[in-house]
Amino acid sequence: MKRFTALLMALVMAVLAGQTLNARTGVKYTPAASEFTVETNADAQQVKLRLYKEGIGGKAVKTINMKRTQQGSALWHADVKGDLKGKFYTFDVKYNGKFRGESPGIWATAVGVNGKRGAIVDMNETNPQGWNTDKRPNIAAKDLILYEMHHRDFSIDESGGFTYKGKFLALTEPRAISHLKALGVNAVHILPSFDYASVDETRLGEPQYNWGYDPVNYNVPEGGYSTDPYKPEVRINEFKQMVQALHKAGIKVILDVVYNHTWNIDGSNFQRTCPDYFYRKNADGTYSNGSGCGNETASEREGMRQFMIESVKYWVDEYHIDGFRFDLMGVHDIETMNAIRAAVPQDIFIYGEGWSAGSCAYTGELAMKANINKMPGIAAFSDEMRDALRGPWDSNSKAAFLGGVKGNEESIKFGIVGAIKHPGVDYSKVNYSKAPYASEPTQMIAYVSCHDDMCLVDRLKASVKGITPDELIRLDLLAQTAVLTSQGVPFLLSGEEMLRDKKGVHNSYESPDSINHLDWDNLERYPQVMEYYKNLIALRKAHPAFHMGDADLVRSNLDFLPTENCLVAYHINGRGVPGEQWGDIYVALNANKRARTIDIPEGSYTVVCRNIKCNTNGLATVKGGKVTIPAQSALILHN
Ligand code: CA
């Protein structure tokens, strides 16, 4: 009832604001005619549609004055007869007596080079062979193992041996697929892959790098990752080929979406289409900057909310995307995030950064981490566990648990249970959250590194004084054991499995390939690292005890052993977990430079992880009583 009332209210508000709900404007193509629509402020004065032969340069071949669909409507349209396939278009909106500049509008689904003009394509012709039978792999949230990667990092280096270096198509190559399958991850989270601004697509012959958090066209793949950004259909087709290849391998594709801000204000498609509607302003009329990138969008406005919902649905429908990672989700309001959750199928996995980068000009509730319990089916990154392991985000050199700093144990336990309410966690001693925020453990992302900040190797080198090469590997594997045995959803930065480093650069958003690339030869240099990651992932997948996916199950079957400095240990009653073959399971994480012991009941146990070796089938057997955990490593055993 409450939901219905809210929906009705939203509808009334939208009509009042002159906005059309659920409108995907832009161009509707048929060989006989193309219909163009664009939605502006209600009091816009004129809209010009221009048609071009090219995606860049040249003069308009036709300029058309668009008409309002009805008097007073904010929706403008133009029907152009004839087959326009292969042509390009722009809109130019006159508002407050001034033309705001050409743009492809906010709903272009194909564009020319650098995304300056919309393109007219027949979307059916962009589908690779067999696309109609492509399906999202059926993997429950509790079973996901996320792998966050940047296209260029992953495949640009010669050592990778890829044909399509730095392109979408690299992920269709056997080298990529076999590596991901060998590692065992089942969801690839690709850094921004919609059309962004900071790589000039007309100069792809020169080395250019950017993470891509600077959106231009939200509903078009980025041209820089295609083999030909001038041909609008190519990037669309290649993106689909990538999705298809990963799906065939049983791997989901998760898109990093950045609806919280745009590359700029004055030149943005939002601002040129509907001036000042899409951005939040401060009381003094200046633009609010909750994104830290110069602007912030206003998700609470019906037009922006509907844009986000429709955009997400479009990626699911057209590109078969399996999930979304919301950049600075804390800039968006809760209602919008819940509306997005409700608008897509249940198996679409949604998570985000439960924070913003500055204060937002919004007085309602924002989609912050602390509000995750008000957003069922949406997860947030746990900086509690991350920083308890590696050290605080505001310093690159401060160590924590991994560096032998005591006092981080309760924060790690918070991450082990998946940020839910659990009687074994003392929340008063948790670093950032003094209360559990997740209702279910699948609402927490467990990780120790991502594209932001130093990667794990660099952080360990910068924060653990006098670290030896041997210690580096031990601590790396210990960190990922905490992540991959967490009841939250585990998340790995691509390349950690090959002990990547970024030469100490912590904000590598525009660093050259020499900093960001994966060195695939590291797989031969440090085979024990990939071997451990792979075996640990296999262990997690084979045992529901490590991903129960239900808060009550975690509360009733997981209990902690007494905590010591830099030692966290827990027991899982496998008998209480549906599908679990093991009985009593013990996990101990020892970050001390010396061996430690835990006391467990007498009996015979199989060791599956000890002294930086891991094997689900068993490494040895031990008797119960006092059990030793070697220095700077994890121990897992069961009966
Ligand atoms: Ca671009």
- Structure summary, number of beta strands: 26
Please describe the biggest sheet, giving its number of strands, its sense, and whether it closes into a barrel.
Answer: 8 strands, parallel, barrel
Query: Mean pLDDT across all residues, rounded?
Result: 95
What is the gyration radius calculated from CA atoms? 26 Å
The percentage of residues in β strands lies in 15-25%
Strand arrangement within the widest β-sheet reads 10-11-14-15-16-17-18-19
Q: Shape, please?
A: elongated
Helix content: 10-25%
Number of helices: 15
The rounded distance between the terminal residues' Cα atoms is 50 Å
Contiguous uncertain segments of 5+ residues: 1-22
In terms of structural class, how would the helical and strand content be classed? alpha/beta
Give an account of the 3D structure.
By secondary structure, the protein is an alpha/beta fold. 24% of the residues lie in helices and 21% in strands. It contains 15 helices and 26 strands. The strands form five sheets. An eight-stranded parallel barrel has the order 10-11-14-15-16-17-18-19, surrounded by four helices. Strands 20, 21, 22, 23, 24, 25 and 26 form a seven-stranded antiparallel sheet that branches. Helix 7 links the parallel strand 15 (323-326) and strand 16 (349-352). Helix 8 packs across helix 9 (409-416) and helix 11 (469-484) packs parallel to helix 14 (527-542). The chain is elongated and about 85 Å long. The protein starts with a helix and ends with a strand. The structure holds calcium ion. The site of calcium ion has 9 residues, from strand 12.
